[in-house]
Hints:
Number of helices of chain A: 8
Number of strands of chain A: 20
Oligomer: heterodimer
Strand content of chain B: under 5%
Shape of chain B: globular
Largest interface: A-B, 23 and 19 residues
CATH superfamily of chain B: MetI-like
Structural class of chain B: mainly alpha
Structural class of chain A: alpha+beta
Order of helices and strands of chain B: HHHHHHHHHHH
Distance between the termini of chain B: 24 Å
CATH class of chain B: Mainly Alpha
Strand content of chain A: 25-35%
Largest sheet of chain B: none
Distance between the termini of chain A: 38 Å
Number of helices of chain B: 11
Strand order of the largest sheet of chain A: 6-7-8-3-9-10
Bound molecules: adenosine-5'-diphosphate, magnesium ion
Order of helices and strands of chain A: EEEHEEEHHHEHEHEEHHEEEEEEEEEE
Amino acid sequence: MTALIDLKNVNKYYDDYHALRDVNLEIAQGEFFSLLGPSGCGKTTLLRTIAGFEAPSDGSLHIAGANMNGVPANARPTNMVFQSYAIFPHLSVAENVGFGLRKSQLSKSDKIKSVEEALDMVGLNGFGGRAAHALSGGQRQRVALARALILKPKVLLLDEPLSALDKKLREQMQSELRRLQRQVGITFILVTHDQEEALIMSDRVAVMFDGAIAQLADPQTLYKRPRTRKVGDFIGVMNFLPAHVTDPNKITLDVAGLGTVTIAPEQAPSGTSSGAAEIGIRPEMMSILFEGEPDRGEIAEATIQDRAYYGDMTYYDVHLKNVPEPVTISMKNIIGRPVLEVGETTRVSWDARSLVLFAS
Amino acid sequence: MKSLRSYAILYLIFLYAPIALLPIFAFNDATIIAFPLSGFTTQWFTELPQIPALIDSVKNSLYIAVITSILSTLLGICAARAAAKYSFRFKRPIMGFIMVPLVLPEIIVAVSLLVILLQLGLSLGAWTVIMGHVLICTPFCIAILNSAFQNLDSAMEEAAIDLGETPWSTFRLVTLPLVSPAIISALLISFTISLDEFIIAFFLTGTEPTLPVYLWSQLRFPARIPVVMALGTILVAGSILLLILAEMMRRRGLRRAGLQDKGGFL
Ligand SMILES: Nc1ncnc2c1ncn2[C@@H]1O[C@H](COP(=O)(O)OP(=O)(O)O)[C@@H](O)[C@H]1O
Ligand SMILES: [Mg+2]
């Protein structure tokens, strides 16, 4: 099966500025796909290129097998939810949602029905007659969704649709969007700078830095096996320890603070070579050894440098011997487990299987 | 603080006292403009329509003002739209030069236009006045429309295109309605400016005077002065009404677009 969306070697220049660098992307029909990256990395540019608002400087874009070169935005099988929502303030909610049907052959009653269905789908039944400029942020977002989905596009493009909402509403909309996507079966491409949002919602995520895709993977792979230190650092929290590869074939290395370890090939997604390297490990993959609790295999001595109590979790910054930077460890606050104070010495345990090697 | 307030009050008195005198003497029952007032009359207002030359000048002025406001608003729409949407070489200097007539002494505009028209051998008339008025009204229209076009979220137009509209239907269905309050406001203001304008009209009007030019010519006849006052009263009232309407339209436009007032022209 060919991909629904296929970008090959897409580059975009704004004068001298290289906004997209050799982007290669295949997105399947029905996928919930996210473009994740810090502000200014080119996510919106890529989305607008797919929508037809920007033309690639070179490279090709196919949607459903058709070359989109020279096809204007109004002739592409894509619809967009804009970051500002771009609700037409001079029209009613129903007129906004039905805007895309103006050119369709449907009868008037069919159009009305289809608008009602679309409003129903986003939980706004009965809002059709309201003036659009009087809606709340969350309602605007729903109107924008309904308006874009009413044309049943092959691809729905969403540019940071949730970033303007407060936390509670955002979390609610995340699961609603996911549900909606499963219900309609349309390919969603979501732009976000929120790594948590990308992990929660997506089938696959493309992490972008400086106009280039740094890694494209499903959320679990992305979290567990980031290909570069930068990706690991951007997604969640990751500790980095200096290491030295002594045997690149068996992948044996000396890690500061942890000693000599051997790892499996899939733990070195960027390959191995002997010499200086870095090891990454997530805070929850290390634990502080409390009395009567099983260890994770390997053990090291540590001193508590700082701690942050979050209620359900406590985050400790600990000092390991020979490690310049403090290492963050997160512990669930289960019954019977004390919260350690700064200055206490303790033992930490970890499992070599949770390490990721980054070649320098 | 205190001196600032008294300054403001003094300023307002100097600005508006002469205008306030207009209606006072327009209703005064005497041909001589002097205090004390002698009595109330509406005689000067009823005399107005009985002067054919006056009626002609009013018609002439309205004709010029309507055409001027339409032309300068159309030009303003094109310029403001281009300035908001496209970036092109020398955009700033070009926009700057378009705005220059705003501060250029009108007498200079008038005399230079007159010289050129005479050089070209064109005869003076309503169209030459319209030309001069469009020249001075267009910057005002651009100033008003520019803020409306700048405030317009470009995603609005893109959303319409995205939903299948052509650039032209997008302009008609989305852009125009969203800037229409500013368009109406530009129409009203250029209409008012053209209606009141004297210097350019005086130089370029030919044999058919506009209302201000006619009024000026009547000042030589003291008996006509109360009638002129009556007419002036109507003009001032009308102008104020139009300006208020224009500002209301501009604010409504902002509100409708859900935007903050970034300070307008009034
Ligand atoms: N029309 C444009 N002209 C010039 N530079 C642009 C234009 N659009 C975007 N850029 C630049 O391209 C970079 C990527 O922008 P964008 O795609 O909006 O980033 P993101 O959505 O990831 O925050 C930014 O540095 C931005 O300044
Ligand atoms: Mg963006």
